[in-house]
Write a structure and sequence with these properties.
Layout: H1 16-37, H2 42-54, E1 57-58, H3 59-66, H4 70-82, E2 86-91, E3 94-102, H5 104-124, H6 130-156
Antiparallel strand pairs: 1-3, 2-3
Helix pairs in contact: 1-5, 2-3, 2-5, 3-4
Amino acid sequence: MEAPSEETHPRWQELPSWLLTQSANHAHRLVTEGFSAVHARGYHYRVLATLEEFGPASQAELGRRSGIHVSEMVATINELAERELVERAPDPADRRRNVISLTTAGKRQLRRLEKQLAERQEELLAPLSPEERERFTELLAKLLDHHDRRAGAAEARPG
């Protein structure tokens, strides 16, 4: 029996789902390494970027806007507040809740995170031309939108 050629791949390695998963693993590793280089993690970026884009918000609103579950949001806000990247202040409209806002140090950290993201995106997409990158991103967004809408419709269905 002849050994398979080094260039031969099992069929499953050509499946889009497998290719996406493997690429996602590389993307996650690259971004995690980039954020670690500036003592941060993905949730930190999402909170800081959301605050910059939408302004101060309650923890609940920040969780909805950033897509971070409430159980993770508390720890993330605590980490960012300890480093003085965000500030908590009582909500004047409802003293039972806090409003989270971005500090000057938080803006500086966000710039560092954006720099790391840009470098990691470049590394991830290195083999693609600018046109291919744009098309690839469009196709990924189309796939994600389709499946998000389907998941939303399934969640809205009764029992």
